[in-house]
Structure formats: structure tokens, C-alpha cells
């Protein structure tokens, strides 16, 4: 099979252009789901999708689809490609956006070459993959895959008290089409690795064969506010201290377990949040992950037991709210093999690997054969403005996606 290439300048130029949308006066990039900045990014993407001659479809949870129907069998199940364009706070420009823009690039490259695919090809940009404003993360693809009703998802209240349905209405992306309206024949997501493995091993391509389980919980600890100077340590019911013990416990438990589990406390809020007042309340989120479901459950159980112990020892009340819980996912071996075959044909070093990050592929794998392609992240940095992937790797990953799609829409596809 001849080795075609996508249009490198068009892809890297669009990644940079989209990366400029949603910056604040300090230059920080933030496009939280349902925000004005999210609308601006969505509008830019939709303009590119329309200019490529695709049908634009917005579903009820705001997922954006560009459908290329010029297939020899237009009503066959489509090959779906995509990711997300919402970001975390003070984000980099590649997370999610690279996969959506590379998917559009692959379709445009195929149309420019006059290819008539055996089945339609669709580019998808799923709503609220990051889950920073509305929990859980991967919300749009979870609804699309039937894992959560669209009504429940639309009623989600954000960290700022907003309601997702109001925000989607407000930004003009409350679509009319039912999520799940197209059943993918297969789904392939191209994404930056967001970790250190590929760069450390000198690999250009990651053929992702599984993705770890994710557990998000919000913990609220209620103690008693008191004077920081006059209250003896033994008489305190200090919500702040109890919260600090939780972080230390998780680190020490995982260190002892020798497992690849990870634990993160990424948000923490104290009340009354005054320098000389013992906190009466601490509210924080706990993100736990592990590729093995049994180990993840053991970590959750250990946390639950420790919270009970800290409540007794510190004289505080502790309540927990479940925000997200996704089991580990295994991807489709035919697609993983096609990714490796393309990398080999292009002389790109590749390795099979697990995804540490959550992705929309984790949800779409519930309804279609799915796999992911990774490219290296410089210094393994992501969810950080220093996020960077060399253009050569960006192009290589998009060309591997192009090859995999051509195999899937050609006659020789061994998959489903
Ligand atoms: O949390 C994650 O892993 C993803 O970035 N939403
Ligand atoms: Mn992502
Ligand atoms: Mn992310």
C-alpha cells in the first residue's frame, strides 16, 4: 500500500490556531465545557468541518460530528474518529484537540485523493471530556455510548453552580439529535500520550491496548472552627489536618503496595479559609486510578476505612460523594495490530501500552471495536501549558491514523 501523508502544514497550523482560542489576558488557555471559550473553539471547529464539505450534526449533549457520507455504501456503520476540544485550566494545546483535528485532516486527505470509502467516516468532538467543570469526565462520550441518560447528564450541576443544559443552550450547542444516532463500526482515537514512556524509550507511536480504571470522589470533612492560637492541639477538631492526613495516607499506601496505582488530590477548599482559624470544613476531590479493577477496588476500600479512622481520631464528620467510576477497558486487538503494521511500514518505532489518562475511547469501546494511537509528550508533561509534541511526531501519528482508516474502509479489513 503506497504511503500517503496528510497535509502537515494544515494540521499543525490548525492545532496552533485552535490553541489560541480561549486565552486570558495572562495568556493562559482554558476552554471549560459549556463556557464562552468552549463556544469559540467549537465554532472554529465547525467552520473547518463545514469547509471540508462534511455534514455537521450536534446531538443533545452537545457532541459535534462531521459526517462524510460519500461512501460506496452510505448507510453502512461508519468508522468514527475523534476526541475532545474542551480543556483543563491553564492547558496545553494538544490534549484532545490533536485527535479531533487529525481526524478531520485524515478525511480531508482522503477526499483530496479522490478516495471513495467503503463506509462513511465521521469525525467526533465529544462534550466535557475533561470533567473539570461538570463531573464525570468523558461525559459526552459516556452519554453517546449509553452509559448515562442524556436527561441526567443535562441536569449536571457544575463546580460554579451552572447547569449543563443551560450552558449548552446558552452557547448554541444544545443539539436535537439523540446521542448514539450513529453506531460506529469502529472507533480510533489519536491522542498525545500525556506521560513519559514513549519519549523515554525513543518510540514514535504507542499502540494503546488498554486504559486504566478511574475513581473520582468528593470528600467533605466537618470539624469545628476555633482560635489558631488559644486551642491546644489535643482539643482541636481540625478539618484541615484530617484532609492532610488523607493525602499522606494515599501516598504511603500506594508506596507499600508496589502497584502502578496513582492517587491525586487536585482540588481542596477550606472554610472559613482564614489564616488564624482552625478549618471547620475541608472539601476535596480524590482521583484514584489503576489498570487492574481488583486493585482499584482495594485502594477505594482502604481509603474508605482510613476516612472512618480519621473521623474517629480527629473528632470530625466525613461524607463522600461519588463523582465518577469507570472500569479498566481492553481495546480491539485487530485495530491495535493495524496500528503496529502501519508504524512498521512507515519505519516508526512503536510499542503496545496502557493509557494512564481517561479518554473518550474508554466510553466508545462499550459500543464498538476501539483502540488508540499515542504520540510522545515532551518530558511527559500534560494538563500544563508546557505540554508539547514535536511536529514530526504529530504528523507521524496522523499518518498512522490515515493508514488504519484506509485499511478499515478498504476491502482487506479483518476486523468486524
Ligand atoms: O482525567 C483524565 O484522565 C482525562 O484527561 N479527562
Ligand atoms: Mn484528552
Ligand atoms: Mn485531558
Q: Would you give an account of this structure?
A:
The structure is a single chain. The chain is α/β, with parallel strands linked by helices and 416 residues long. The protein folds into two domains: 286 residues, Zn peptidases (Aminopeptidase), CATH 3.40.630; 114 residues, Alpha-Beta Plaits, CATH 3.30.70.360. It is 35% helix and 22% strand. The chain is built from twelve helices and 15 strands. Strands 1, 2, 3, 4, 5, 6, 13, 14 and 15 form a nine-stranded mixed β-sheet that branches. α3 crosses α12 and α10 crosses α12. (2S)-amino(hydroxy)ethanoic acid binds next to loops. The site of (2S)-amino(hydroxy)ethanoic acid has 6 residues, from loops.
Search tags:
416 residues, alpha/beta, Aminopeptidase, Alpha-Beta Plaits, nine-stranded mixed β-sheet, four-stranded antiparallel β-sheet, 15 strands, 35% helix, globular, binds (2S)-amino(hydroxy)ethanoic acid, binds manganese (II) ion
CATH domain class name of the largest domain: Alpha Beta
User: What is the CATH homology-level superfamily of the largest domain?
Assistant: Zn peptidases
Strand tally, please?
Answer: 15
Order of helices and strands: HHEEEHEHHHEHEEEHEEEHEEHEHEH
Helix content: 25-40%
Number of domains: 2
| Integer average pLDDT | 96
Q: At the third CATH level, what is the topology name of the largest domain?
A: Aminopeptidase
Report the span from N to C terminus.
21 Å
Instruction: Assign the CATH architecture of the largest domain.
Output: 3-Layer(aba) Sandwich
The main sheet comes to: 9 strands, mixed
| Shape annotation | globular
Strand content: 15-25%
Judged by helices, strands and strand pairing, the structural class is: alpha/beta
Q: Over all CA atoms, what is the radius of gyration?
A: 23 Å
List the bound ligands: (2S)-amino(hydroxy)ethanoic acid, manganese (II) ion
Question: Uncertain segments of ≥5 residues (pLDDT<50)?
Answer: none
SS summary, helix count: 12
